[in-house]
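Human:
Take a look at this sequence-structure pair and walk me through the tokens.
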Amino acid sequence: MSSINVVVNGVNGRMGQEVLRAVCREPDMLPVGGADLRADVASAALPDGSGSIPVSSSLLDVLGDARVVVDFTNAEGAMDAIRTAAPRGVNVVVGSTGIPAAGYEEAEDLARRHGVGVFIAPNFALGAVLMAHLARVAAPYFDYADLTELHHEAKIDAPSGTALAIAKAAAEGRGRDFTAPKAEKEIIPGTRGGESQGVVIHSARMPGLTAHHQLVLGALGQTLTIRHDSINRESFMPGVAMAVRHAAANPGLTVGLDKIMGL
């Protein structure tokens, strides 16, 4: 079986470096290039010592014989990657969050017109995906929902894409909005957090954190807590590998790891 040639977009970032290490470990994948706006060298050594790959500030320069581009940049970078790769017959896996609805529509159109696979997920940790699934199952039995998400201090968006996905899953499972009590007197504005379909969401940012989500569902006389913790970035890599294999073999747009986990 031939290897899946992979280019990492955002290769100089922390997630990009983790993806590069993961691709080196997978027996059916081969890293063939890296792109990053901060790239200042023409090549970079692979983390497993097996050689080097070309690196450029332009994704187009390193597409070559790539079969899949894995993007961990930001919403704008992800859309640029899809617009660059899809017309050239290269599949794309996106882990960047914050993509607007119009971006999903454009990605679906590009995937369809060029016959490539585009895979977008708010979280690649299998446990986080299972958490959203469990929230959907449990939600019909509860009236209140508070969701707390904690990430490292450099995370750009708040709340996290995963938190929004969990809140959406819970509201869909319940079939209507949760009850979100309003404080009669909010001493510090915003103390109660944001709100999505009645799910009250709180975001924390602090050094030393990776990705942590806790949902507390409440009803008369009881609560149910569902929590997932990503201890390090390695936790995302099995899901990324699943997505790369799926995108390489399945044209069209796929949103969410749950679609290929049998959930």
In short: The radius of gyration is 20 Å.
